[in-house]
Design a protein that fits this description.
- This protein has helices at residues 32-45, 65-87, 104-162, 179-184, 204-215, 251-263, 275-331, 354-367, 396-403, 416-431, 434-449, 451-455, 461-468, 470-487, 539-572, 576-607, 613-622, 637-656, 658-677, 683-692, 698-722, 725-749, 754-792, 809-816, and strands at 23-31, 49-50, 193-200, 219-225, 230-231, 238-239, 241-248, 267-269, 335-336, 342-350, 375-379, 503-505, 518-520.
- By secondary structure, the protein is of the alpha+beta class.
- Helix 10 (416-431) crosses helix 14 (470-487), helix 16 packs antiparallel against helix 19 (658-677) and helix 19 packs antiparallel against helix 21 (698-722).
- A hairpin with a 6-residue loop joins strand 5 (230-231) and strand 6.
- Helix content is 60%, strand content 8%.
């Protein structure tokens, strides 16, 4: 288990997922003139995690605060351009990226000029668009108000013609306004004023009521809805409006009406009563509208040309600003030396990356024409390094499953290696159906075949999770096909894929869905469950017994694997106490009880015995000295059980007592040794020893060991029982699949009606997809996740490390996108 790749500098080190990469704390002293370029090259390399050496300073007190502010301002301008491109439906074209290097100072000037130009163009376009919308509204008012006056005049003329000469004293509701007074006494004629405009249709009723109340009814309002929506000049939104004309008398009434119009957002426009002036105004407005429309189109074309030029280089500019901001953030983490001519950086890097880092620093010195080179050195430290696993697109999702529980401690055994196989396999034990497995496989192959196209697209949350875990789903589907073949289930239907059934009817009367009358006529079915069990009276007892015992065997095997990995961890970290007082007693305790149960299951399968294993295990504790009788599976079983029970009892104090005592003894010996060597040590080493010296509290250590022992003893029972979820979910999946097949598809087939058959097939399809392929997949996934996190990883995995987070431009750009 020793680590590979000490200080070698291969560009592609061999990947080892079992333990994290060997890390080192490095210190780099960089001349100020080459610091920017050196950090840039290290960001391209992406193998250094810098430490913040200025943690006591606020962001505004740091050296490069002004440069970060400049980058933030440039990022704001780029965000403004992105919003404008989004409004104009112009997308960034990454294929036209310019390969010429653009200096950040030149970019700042260029972005400022483009922002000013684009702001002016937008302001002019908005002003022209507002004027255009006002003219369009004015044109609508002229047309509608002209119709009002024309229809009113026509009605008045008709009424005057139809009115009898002797009807002078009676008034009519249909007569024109103030008609009677004007006819009787011309001196009483009142000069009426008018206002016209547009009001939002949703406010029209309230507008009319407020006008009536404010003028006490001394006004005449005529409204008519506009056929098409119009763009409001102020808000720029499409609004359904009503055209209105208000007749009033007096300046006081006019001022009230104007205020009400303003309050309701009613836009007012002048309207001449003279017909000739109306026609002239309509012509002028129409001419201005056409001129403005052409001017607006020219302005929008100019704006689009600016945005298209920006879009061709937007990605390059955006990445450059992000990189520049990240560089200055990193430079702010470096400390200045006393002369302020050099920057001192500290950080973690993999051991294999030493030569690559030195090459990057050398290139930065040459490219910046610095007279002094950078100094690279490895520091000795007691600090725990970060954890770094090199993964690819296949292993990465499995590693993320482990990391979601906790990041591995530096160089402890990584469960991700075993998760690649055990996770999809335990999922498949619960999901076993090769028909459903093929459905999952087809969906996953679609994601894998189109992964390049899908990786470049922005996916929704659910699709993004599925795409990220496509290789996990691939393994789950392949194992589901395998376990489905073992269970002999294809959408709950058994097939004789590997040969004929081993059983046959004794006589023709036995084919009544029962195993009574069946005799073994052929060799045992070569692979998986014999199809004759399905549909028989003993189907459920047989499958329950089979799957339950398989669950116990798989659980005990995986828990033993976890305990075995704890041994390799102890050997790697040279911790002999964990080997003798943790690994060995845990292995003895687990296998004395549940390892023995697994052995009894295998013996019973091999011998065909009818022994009751429940009885054997219960009375192994209650009455270990009683005879087993018909439950005896092998000679000397009683003696073996007594020995195993004794070993299980001995292993509990073996785990509990010796380890705290030995730890106390080791601490005392170490403390005595320090008393004699302390005087010869330097001040720095004294400080370092004092920092890393921890007080030893025997009571705390003993309580911790007591909790750990109780947790393991009780967990051995509860964890074994927890693996029975494999049996329960497998049974539930099988029974649900059977119900959907028999009660929906087969039942609809029996009606001999094509419509009922189609309806049944559709219901079966949606039930299979929605329940069995979505809900059951999620359920089995979560249960497999729990078995790995709790039952498997708690045997060896500490998970108290922290992830290696290097300064890398690739991850910065990807995260912010």
């Amino acid at each position: 288990m020793s680590r590979r790749g000490g200080g070698g500098g291969g560009c592609c080190p061999s990947m080892d997922l079992m333990r994290s990469e060997a890390m080192q704390l490095v210190q780099v002293i960089i001349p100020a003139e080459s610091a920017h370029l050196a950090v840039s090259y290290l960001g391209d390399l992406g193998l250094v995690q810098f430490k913040d050496l200025n943690a006591d300073k606020s962001p505004f007190q740091r050296t490069y605060a002004s440069q970060i502010k400049r980058c933030g301002e440039m990022a704001r301008k780029l965000w403004f351009f992105k919003e404008q491109m989004s409004k104009a439906a112009i997308s960034t074209s990454s294929t036209q990226l310019s390969r010429t290097y653009l200096d950040i100072d030149d970019l700042e000037i260029k972005l400022g000029e483009l922002e000013v130009e684009l702001t002016e163009v937008n302001a002019n376009n908005e002003k022209l668009q507002r004027t255009y919308n006002e003219l369009v509204e004015y044109n609508v008012v002229l047309q509608k108000a002209g119709e009002f006056f024309y229809s009113a005049q026509r009605i008045a003329v008709e009424q005057q013609r139809e009115m009898p000469a002797d009807q002078s004293g009676d008034s009519s509701l249909e007569s024109p306004l103030l008609q009677q007074e004007m006819l009787t006494d011309p001196s009483k004629q009142v000069k009426l004023g008018s206002l016209s405009g547009l009001v939002p249709k949703e406010k029209a009723m309230a507008f009319e009521r407020i006008l009536f109340r404010a003028t006490r009814g001394n006004m005449f309002l005529r409204q008519e809805p506009v056929d098409e929506t119009v763009t409001d000049p102020l808000s720029g939104e499409k609004v359904i409006k009503n055209a209105f004309v208000i007749f009033y008398s007096g300046e006081r009434a006019k001022s009230k009406i104007v205020k009400i119009c303003d309050a309701f957002g009613a836009n007012r426009y002048p309207f001449a009563e003279d017909l000739g002036k109306q026609l002239q105004t309509i012509q002028e407005v129409s001419g201005k509208i056409s001129e403005l429309k052409a001017t607006i189109e020219i302005g929008l074309a100019h704006r689009d040309s600016i945005l298209k030029n920006i879009s061709s280089e937007f990605d390059q500019w955006n990445n450059l600003v992000k990189k520049e901001k990240a560089i200055y953030h990193t430079l702010n983490m470096l400390s200045l030396d006393v002369t302020k001519k050099c920057l001192v950086a500290e950080g973690w890097s993999p051991v294999f990356a030493s030569s690559q880092i030195q090459d990057a620093l050398m290139r930065a010195t040459v490219d910046s024409n610095s007279q002094i080179g950078s100094i690279f050195q490895v520091l000795n430290t007691q600090e725990s390094p970060p954890t770094y696993f090199q993964t690819n697109k296949f292993t990465s999702p499995f590693q993320e499953i482990v990391d979601a529980y906790g990041i591995a401690k530096y160089q402890e055994a990584n469960p991700g290696v075993f998760t690649i196989v055990t996770f999809p396999f335990l999922f498949a034990v619960m999901f076993g159906d090769w028909g459903h497995g093929i459905c999952l496989l087809v969906a996953t192959l679609y994601l894998i075949i189109r992964e390049k196209k899908l990786a470049s697209q922005k996916l929704d949350d659910i699709m993004d999770m599925m795409f990220g875990g496509r290789y996990v789903i691939l393994m789950m589907s392949l194992f589901s096909i395998y376990t489905g073949l073992v269970y002999n289930e294809f959408f709950s239907v058994p097939f004789e894929l590997f040969g004929k059934s081993a059983y046959a009817c004794r006589d023709p009367s036995c084919g009544d869905a029962t195993t009574e009358g069946l005799i073994k006529a052929r060799p045992t079915y070569p692979f998986g469950v014999d199809p004759v069990w399905y549909g028989s009276r003993s189907e459920l007892p047989f499958l329950n017994s089979l799957k339950m015992k398989l669950s116990i065997l798989l659980g005990v095997a995986q828990m033993n694997l976890g305990i075995l990995i704890s041994y390799f961890n102890a050997k790697f970290f040279r911790n002999a106490l964990n080997v003798w007082y943790q690994f060995i007693p845990q292995l003895i305790f687990l296998n004395s009880l549940f390892g023995y149960l697994s052995l009894l299951i295998i013996i019973k399968w091999c011998t065909g015995s009818k022994a009751d294993l429940y009885h054997v295990m219960i009375y192994m504790f209650l009455s270990p000295t009683d005879d087993l009788g018909e439950n005896q599976l092998f000679p000397g079983q009683k003696l073996v059980q007594l020995i195993l029970l004794l070993l299980a009892l001995v292993s509990v104090p073996w785990m509990l007592i010796p380890k705290p005592l030995l730890l106390k003894r080791q601490h005392e010996q170490r403390h005595q040794g320090q008393q004699y060597t302390m005087l010869q040590a330097t001040d720095e080493s004294v400080t370092e020893l004092e920092e890393h010296h921890e007080e030893f509290e025997f009571s705390e250590v003993f309580v911790h060991q007591l909790i750990h022992t109780i947790e393991f003893v009780l967990g051995a029972v509860s964890n074994t029982a927890s693996y029975l979820r494999l049996w329960a979910l497998s049974l539930a999946h099988s029974e649900l699949s059977t119900v959907f097949y028999e009660k929906v598809l087969v039942l609809s087939w029996g009606y001999n009606n094509i419509i009922i058959l189609i309806i049944g097939a559709v219901i079966f399809l949606f039930a299979t997809i929605g329940v069995l392929l979505v809900m059951e997949t999620l359920s089995a996934f979560l249960h497999a996740l729990r078995l790995h996190w709790v039952e498997f990883q708690n045997k060896f995995y500490e998970g108290d490390g922290y992830k290696f987070a290097p300064f890398a431009f690739a991850s910065i750009i990807e995260e912010e996108d």
